[in-house]
Fold Phosphatidylethanolamine-binding protein.
Amino acid sequence: MKVKVIRQMFRSVFLNSLRVVRKLCCGYSTHHSVEVLTFILSAIILCLFIIGVYPHRDYEYVSEEDYPHFKIIKAAMEKHKIIPDLHKLFTFYTVQTKFMNGSKSAQMGNELSKEDTQEPPHISYCHDDDAYYTIIMSDLDAPTPGKPYLREWLHWLVVNIPRDNITAGETLGEYIAPVTKNFTGRHRYVITAYRQPGGFRQLRFHEDRLDNKSDVGRVRFSTNTFANDYNYGDPWAMNFWYMSHDNKRWHK
């Protein structure tokens, strides 16, 4: 069933529910009231079922004019298994991620070196002027891609970012650069941006602040759990790169 049909069903159920509520408020009998409440309850259950089964995004009707990079993002996330290893849905936007004063950048699966990523990157992304955002950077392949039992290893966490001005955000986890460890394979490093709920209003976060001198609080971090705890919804934008953790560089 197409998403547009589902939306029409929502609208029909909602309008019928309003009519029934008006009748109830106008003094229907107890017998009719039971029927009315039964109908409303059934409508609510139907809506919850549809919300749970169908994704929030209407990928079938994505416009290339509105989202020119969508196909590239979708293909990269599938090819490199960002879906399902981290996210469940594709993003419409990329997080422009530049290192070394712009001379190096993440490009949806390219390879960067330890030397390239020593300092926090400069980032930008499509944004709304009346919203705050969160940036999360994590390693999906710790300690090895074959046995990532430490997934995710948190490298960077900044919240309450006005628009894409990350320097004005609130840092919950200071940046720790990826460190190469021999013979542990190629690791995927992912940066995800979320649009925070509530419009242009900062959220209050209760996590301990993490400095860059310890891995406490960083091992087995969950981007999805953090996002769910603060009702972020779907990821807004993302980007990722590889780093080889072997005694010699890997090449595609």
Q: What stands out?
A: Strands lie at 93-94, 96-99, 104-105, 110-111, 122-124, 132-139, 153-162, 170-173, 185-195, 237-245. The radius of gyration is 23 Å. The longest strand covers residues 185-195. The chain is about 25% helix and 20% strand.
